[in-house]
Design brief:
By secondary structure, this protein is α+β, with helices and mostly antiparallel strands. It has 19 helices and 26 strands. It comes from Trifolium pratense (Red clover).
């Protein structure tokens, strides 16, 4: 005890010591050791003693956070629909399939399907771009609602931009159509359309492979596949086909023939001579959408033939040949329609009882094969179709915009007293007429107007017998570019006029009529009366001089006029005078001329073909290609190789033709296009690769063009350069000439062309090139 009466306690620091341990081998720990194996699997290993060293594990109900991060998956989609429509158009499924490679001959890369949930009947439409989906839906809606006599109640689609646009959504709201959109990344919720697309493509692949049909005919194949599927059994509709569930009538199928089979078409006596063959070989492309008949293609005569067929197909014949008869009148131009589904009329009566329809001519179809090609080569066809405009009167009359365009054309014909009723002279053949339809676009790619023209079928005439002269009042691009350079250097504005129905103004004084020449004579007489002077070297260029150095320049390209000058009053008087003399469309300042975009600014005038170049890349599936810095590999030498297998010459020619039109504003492409154009007769893969390289270069230079500057330092001095190689063509050792002329700071004329003769030296090649350049300069 201490002095303060407190006890003293002696204490020491105890060092911690482990007297006993417990091994933590929990289920969660072994879950991690087993690479996050599911708990059920761990328990199975433990209970059945499938391994040694694994302790007894307890059940764990908590989810592993790491497994949720690494193994999360969506819930499964029910295989059976929870609800089915009980009436037609109560629910419509839709989807777009594509892009499909290769694109069709008409430039289409997508097809759009609509499937009625109640009947499971499908309608199909072929599209160039997804943006056309809205217009397609409106056409489909009008068609089916008229047939079914009830309205579409609900539309189920995915969340593609073509379905969720403001215009599409507003239209559905206005029409009282309920929308069902799938969840993001869940195509299974639109399983009817998705499965339909898969089935259609399976059928198309089989049909194309069976008959070796070129893949570019896929629109025809997919439409026939849809036609067949609508008449095939399905588990979704009990004991009937979708066509019967929709129409209430059992469809006829005895007219079915194999897609792509060879057909023999009878040639009427009036269309052949005594020793000519009485039939020709064609290829079956299905049934016509407009006529109750077959649709066949004749690759030699470049014709689509709509004909009724007799049912004498021989099943034992490996070629499944069909005997068919066509009418005598081969009248209407026609291309394969890629925008409609099977016709209602086609299912209501058998083809064997149908009225014969006229065969129809197809000027846009081309083939590189001769008439002597064998049966197998008949399948290697190619088609060119540049737009989706109506191809017949029956198709156009269904749309109000085309009916209005035809009314305007008929009014112009009436106002100009174009024709009169008369007696056909003895020994003369009458020439039929047909409608031509064209959608006009502005520089932004937007629809400007719908144009319809009633034209004579000039292709029924023979040169040297029915006519002798061919004429078209068109300005050369050299002239147009020179006017642009001249106007830009002086700071003038260029304006544009369009003459409505120009050919109707021609005054005919002959028995053999040539409409373009008659129109030119009419407009030339007008310019003479207005004291214009015609350029002696360019007959489409007219100049008018006023007082005090006033000048007005006009260039004519058929019915399109561009004009410029240094006096606004003089230009206004000219425009007023033209409007009094002719029915005109005032297009204002020149912005879009013959596919060329024109930008007039204070710095000068810039011309480009960016819109057209973009369309070319999309047409040939090159819009997403990798860019290159030059149109051709330096030092590249292309040659003809007869040992290498040839490619599709028709597609190759299409590519070259599109690139050649780009030369209106792209002198940098002149040599490369000139080089690849030499092999259009029999291109090989090497040549196609060279063309695709040009397009890859084009992809990176879409905005390139020519700038004509205001008050250019070079002024209006015309400068030219020329050059040539020597024996650059390895096939015939001919040289290539190249020249370019500059005016107002921009190129106005250029050329790259193989020389017509074989020169003996570099000096001689240079002399030939200089001579060509001098002739152009003069």
């Amino acid at each position: 005890m201490s002095s303060n009466i407190m006890y003293m306690i002696s204490a020491t620091i105890i060092i911690p010591r482990c007297l006993m341990t417990a091994k933590q081998e929990s289920t969660v720990l072994w879950h991690g050791r087993y690479g996050h194996l599911h708990f059920k699997g761990l328990n199975t290993l433990s209970k059945k003693q499938m391994v040694r060293g694994l302790p007894d594990l307890e059940e764990v109900e908590d989810n592993c956070v790491d497994c949720l991060a690494g193994k999360q998956s969506r819930d499964s989609i029910p295989k059976q629909a929870n609800w089915r429509a009980s009436a037609k158009l109560e629910l419509v499924h839709s989807d777009i399939c594509g892009p499909i490679t290769p694109q069709s001959n008409g430039g289409s890369r997508y097809f759009m399907t609509f499937t009625d949930d109640f009947s499971r009947k499908t309608w199909i439409y072929v599209l160039k771009e997804k943006s056309l989906a809205f217009e397609c839906f409106k056409f489909f809606k009008a068609l089916v609602e008229k047939k079914a006599k009830c309205a579409i109640q609900c539309l189920r689609t995915d969340r593609g931009g073509e379905y969720t646009s403001n215009a599409f959504s507003d239209f559905c709201s206005k029409e009282g159509i309920k929308r069902q959109l799938t969840a993001a990344y869940t195509p299974q919720q639109n399983e009817v359309s998705e499965r339909k697309n898969r089935t259609l493509l399976n059928i198309v692949r089989s049909m194309i492979h069976a008959r070796n049909v070129p893949k570019r005919f896929w629109p025809e194949a997919v439409k026939w596949a849809t036609y067949v599927m609508n008449r095939s059994p399905t588990l979704s509709v009990k004991d009937m086909t979708p066509e019967e569930a929709w129409s209430g009538k059992k469809p006829f199928v005895h007219h079915f023939k194999t897609f792509g089979c060879v057909a023999h078409v009878h040639i009427h006596d009036s269309q052949r001579r005594k020793l000519d063959d009485k039939s020709k070989k064609c290829v079956l492309l299905g049934v016509s959408e407009e006529f109750k008949a077959y649709k066949l293609f004749d690759p030699v005569e470049k014709r689509i033939i709509i004909t009724n067929g007799s049912n004498d197909e021989n099943p034992a014949d490996a070629e499944e040949q069909i005997t068919a008869t066509n009418n005598t009148n081969a009248n209407e131009n026609m291309v394969i329609n890629e925008t409609s589904s099977d016709s209602e009329d086609e299912r209501n009566s058998p083809l064997g009882t149908r009225i014969r329809k006229p065969s129809v001519r197809l000027n846009d179809y081309v083939t590189g094969q001769a008439a002597e090609e064998d049966d197998e080569e008949l399948h290697n066809l190619a088609v060119i179709n540049t737009n989706n405009d109506p191809i017949s009167y029956n198709e156009a009359v269904k749309h109000a915009v085309w009916r209005q365009a035809m009314d305007i054309e008929m009014e112009s014909i009436k106002n100009n007293d174009t024709w009169e009723l008369t007696t056909l002279p003895a020994g003369c053949n009458s020439i039929g007429v047909k409608w031509i339809y064209k959608t006009k676009y502005n520089e932004k790619g937007e629809i400007d107007k719908y144009k319809a023209r009633l034209v004579a079928k000039g292709y029924t005439q023979k040169h040297g017998i029915d006519y002798h002269e061919v004429f078209a009042p068109v300005a050369r691009w050299d002239n147009i570019r020179s006017i642009l350079a001249f106007a830009a250097n002086n700071g003038w504005k260029i304006y544009q006029l369009d003459v409505k129905s120009a050919f109707l103004y021609g005054e005919l004084t002959e028995n053999i009529y040539q409409a373009p020449r008659a129109w030119y004579s009419k407009i030339e007489s007008y310019f003479n009366a207005e004291k214009f002077e015609k350029c002696p070297y360019e007959h489409t260029l007219f100049v008018k001089y006023g007082m005090k150095n006033e000048i007005l320049v006009v260039s004519l390209y058929v019915d399109d006029l561009i004009y410029t000058g240094n006096n606004q009053r003089l230009m206004d008087e000219f425009k007023s005078s033209m409007k009094k003399k002719f029915a005109m469309t005032d297009l204002g300042k020149m912005r879009f001329f013959l596919g060329v975009e024109v930008d007039q600014s204070s710095n000068g005038i810039f011309i480009t073909q960016q819109k057209y170049a973009t369309e070319v890349l999309a047409r040939f599936g090159m819009e997403h290609c990798n860019q290159v810095s030059s149109p051709i590999v330096p030092g590249c030498k292309l040659v003809r190789d007869e040992t290498e297998q040839g490619t599709d010459a028709t597609v190759y020619k299409q590519m070259i033709g599109c690139l050649m039109y780009l030369l209106a504003t792209r002198p940098d492409l002149a040599y490369s296009v000139c080089l690849v154009a030499r092999f259009m007769e029999r291109p090989t893969e090497m040549h196609v690769t060279a063309v695709k390289r040009i397009m890859r270069y084009l992809k990176g230079t879409l905005g390139f063009g020519i700038m004509y500057k205001f008050n250019s330092k070079s002024g209006m001095c015309l400068k030219g350069w020329c050059d040539s190689d020597y024996a650059g063509d390895l096939d015939d050792r001919k040289s290539t000439t190249g020249f370019v002329f500059m005016l107002g700071g921009g190129a106005v004329s250029w050329s790259s062309k193989k020389q017509p003769i074989v020169t003996l030296s570099t000096t001689e090649a240079e002399y030939v090139s200089a001579a060509a350049c001098a002739c152009q300069g003069i």
